[in-house]
Amino acid sequence: MRSTKKGENNPMCASNLRLRKKNTGSQPHAIELEVLDLETNKKTTYPSISAAARALNISIPAISQYFIRNQKKPSKGRYIFRAGSATPQK
Which residues pair with 36 in a beta bridge? Predict the structure, then answer.
């Protein structure tokens, strides 16, 4: 067996996996999203696009396309999205 596959040198060794996961953070590229619901006139802030999609029962691509198309019309005739800043890294 090659030395790279033995013990600590093995890429799947538990200590190597911990080191890889340690630097990723929970959602390092998450974009905070502010959503205005026109029916209730309530603003809600979500930590990521996926969190907003889950809460509003909308697909993630529908929200992404809203920004890609620089859309002004409310999504689903109800929601206006505004991207916030990226989640700060720790």
Answer: 43, 80
pLDDT tens digits along 76-85: 999 999 987 5
Which CATH number covers residue 57? Answer: 1.10.10
Confirm whether 14 is domain-assigned. no
Q: What is the C-alpha to C-alpha distance for residues 56 and 41, in angstroms, rounded to an integer?
A: 15
Tens digit of pLDDT for each residue in 14-56?
Answer: 554 444 444 445 667 778 999 999 999 999 999 999 999 999 9
Tell me the three-class secondary structure of 35-65, residue by residue: EEECCCCEEEEECCHHHHHHHHCCCHHHHHH
